[in-house]
Amino acid sequence: MDQFLVDEGELVVGGERLSLLAARVGQTPFYAYDRGLLQARVAALRAALPKGIKLHYAMKANPMPAVVGFMARLVDGVDVASAGELKVALDAGADPAEISFAGPGKRDAELRQAVASRVLVNLESPREIAVLQAASAELGLPARVAVRVNPDFELKGSGMKMGGGPKQFGVDVEQMPALLADIGRAGLAFEGFHLFAGSQNLRADSICEAQQKSFDLAVRLAQDAPGPVKFLNLGGGFGIPYFPGDQRLDLAPIGANLQQLLERAKAELPHAELVIELGRYLVAEAGVYVTRVVDRKISRGQVYLVTDGGLNHHLSASGNFGQVVRKNYPVTIGNRQGGGETEQASVVGPLCTPLDLLADRMQLPVAGVGDLAVVFQSGAYGASASPQAFLGHAPCTEVLV
Ligand SMILES: *Cc1c(COP(=O)(O)O)cnc(C)c1O
């Protein structure tokens, strides 16, 4: 993957050759996230999008505290999905005024913490109104709310659909007028709307269409709102290329589309700031997962590189985190980049399950015991999205370099 340079036959991550980075970390397996690449990604995105668009980091993609702290200084806000993430974001120094809290099934205690923290709650159920009202009265603080809307459309071509049809997320459009009236009666501090239609989308036209429809819907809903719309979160869903043939998302049409929506907002939602929230797109390509080969076996002619890490640390690379048909993430041997011989090999972990597969019959540099297998595109939905206790192996570690 060309975002990482090669020096003396080794990948360079965070300015360090991989074998030296592994020595510094002191153990394998580990995830490493490259600060320079994180910064470059945000800069490139800012350059492609109009200035008036606010950029939020959806931290569930990578909640490592050091990463959240680094990202919080680069973006305009942080989106959290639990009280645990809220704590990390606040500890990291994110401005509570620019934190929003979404997610189904927020516990009463979490909602109370949100009010006490003065963050914006993306309300996803009528149940949350009374809880927020009580917390607000008890604490003497306004309960800031936006409503997450389950729209009557889907994000086409999305890896994971999170809006449209029956969903556990958000409030159905049909229920919105009654809900907005209830919010007004409860005296909550209404700020706007949140729409999130789906994830991992590589089609700019679909993303633009979803943004347009989200904006139109917000304009319609604003008529029933208990106050002016100050906040409109149009969602995200920007995907990254994982597999051969994946085309990189074209930002130009998205930038143009958002510019048009900013123009419309001046007339149609004059108090609203427009926000997009991205997780994976901001962090995934800046991260690698590094695991050491502990055995090299040949079974009926097929080479297996058995490593000290696998699906217990990197469920998504094993294909078990929402992939319908398993495909290989980009994998290489990070300390064998000198252009030597290659062979077909499978990279597997040490778990007693055939699902523990990081690379299925890929063409890789010839490797043996002690070499470092690297999984690219691993900065999102890695360590925190994996069953680390499974089979009792040690957890992996993470570094920001
Ligand atoms: C998961 C999620 C995101 C981030 O999705 P990515 O695909 O990582 O960009 C953003 N917003 C909400 C509401 C989410 O649930």
Question: What do these coordinates show?
Answer:
- By secondary structure, this protein is an alpha/beta fold.
- It has eleven helices and 22 strands.
- The chain has helices spanning 18-25, 35-48, 65-74, 83-91, 108-117, 127-139, 176-186, 204-222, 251-268, 280-283, 315-318, and strands spanning 6-7, 10-13, 16-17, 30-33, 54-58, 77-80, 99-101, 120-123, 144-150, 158-161, 171-172, 189-194, 198-201, 231-233, 273-278, 287-299, 302-307, 331-333, 342-348, 357-365, 372-375, 397-400.
- The mean pLDDT is 96.
- Pyridoxal-5'-phosphate (PLP) binds at residues 58, 60-61, 79, 102, 196, 199-200, 236, 277-281, 380.
Number of separate strands: 22
Low-confidence stretches: none
CATH topology of the largest domain: TIM Barrel
Structural class: alpha/beta
Major sheet summary line = 8 strands, mixed
Q: Quick one: CATH class of the largest domain?
A: Alpha Beta
Oligomer: single chain
Strand residue percentage? 25-35%
What is the annotated CATH architecture of the largest domain?
Alpha-Beta Barrel
CA(first)-CA(last) distance: 18 Å
Q: Give the overall shape, derived from the CA principal axes.
A: elongated
Helical fraction equals 25-40%
Mean pLDDT: 96
Could you give me the name of the CATH homologous superfamily of the largest domain? Alanine racemase
For the CA atoms, what is the radius of gyration? 22 Å
| Whole-number total of structural domains | 2
What is the tally of helical segments?
11
Listed once per kind, the bound small molecules are: pyridoxal-5'-phosphate
